[in-house]
Amino acid sequence: MLREGSLDYPTLVGKSIASTQVLWERTLAFPGVVEFYARLPGQTITDIGRRGKFLMILLSLDTLLLHLRMSGDVRVEAQEMPIALHDRLLVNFDDGLRLVFNDTRKFGRVWLVGDAREILGNLGPEPFDDELTPLEFYRRLHTTRRQLKPLLLDQSFLAGLGNIYTDESLHLAHLHPLTPANEVSPDQAERLLGAIHQILEDGIRHNGASIDWVDRGGGFQNYFRVYDRAGEPCPECGSSIQRMVVGQRGTHFCPTCQPLT
């Protein structure tokens, strides 16, 4: 998310870019630094949006895409502010403000592209897309035998879900992470889609989750049902929450509420 100082991020619309500074070159996924420096100044922000996990800053000629990954953060501040630890990329506006991409773990990336579909074209539907009805979600699940946990993390199947929100959604829907997708019933598919909606809405309401040493101002970690709670009691039945690794991702579930049938 954009983190503001005393500003609300929609005020960036209409601002003209004066210059940029790449402080860690690998943050820039595309293009190269020389082209980035030459191409971005002079463009104006026309809109700000999101697609899946990507923040989209629409410009007069191009689109600036940012993916925060695990520890990325974006803030808006005055240009005279000192550069902070872990700042990776700066975009300076002609009014004295700047947009800063900060990333502790260096996993985040930035793209400057003429057509956002070059990067976003393979993303699946958004969870709140009106066309993703329970029936359509059920149909999509039944196109594969993949297990639910890795399938829901696959951004080409459904855009926007990460590890935390997948574990939380599967628990709320009472579905085991290893359930083959094509064995999900219509009622279970509807319940899972509704759970995804509820968990995402809860996460948005609490400004996301802040974990590890990276404090991004979120509070959703205080409301986790199962994620990162291995050995603790399930909030629904009291059974001990278990942890396993699925597709190289730590996965948390309740063996009682989420039986593998």
Salient structural properties:
261 residues; alpha+beta; N-terminal domain of MutM-like DNA repair proteins; 2 domains; 5-stranded mixed beta sheet; 21% helix; disordered N terminus
Describe this structure in words.
- There is one protein chain.
- The strands form 3 sheets. This protein has a 5-stranded mixed β-sheet with strand order 1-7-9-8-2, covered by helices on one side. It has a 5-stranded mixed β-sheet with strand order 3-10-6-5-4. A two-stranded antiparallel sheet has the order 11-12.
- By secondary structure, it is α+β, with helices and mostly antiparallel strands.
- Helix 3 (134-141) crosses helix 6 (186-205) and helix 5 packs across helix 6 (186-205).
- It has helices at 33-39, 117-120, 134-141, 148-153, 163-172, 186-205, and strands spanning 2-4, 17-22, 28-30, 45-51, 54-59, 63-67, 72-78, 87-93, 97-103, 109-113, 242-246, 249-253.
- A hairpin with a 2-residue loop joins strand 4 and strand 5.
- Residues 1-8 have low confidence and may be disordered.
- It contains 6 helices and 12 strands.
- 29% of the residues are buried.
- The two termini are 39 Å apart.
- The protein folds into 2 domains: 2-120, MutM-like, N-terminal (N-terminal domain of MutM-like DNA repair proteins), CATH 3.20.190.10; 134-253, Helicase, Ruva Protein, domain 3 (Orthogonal Bundle).
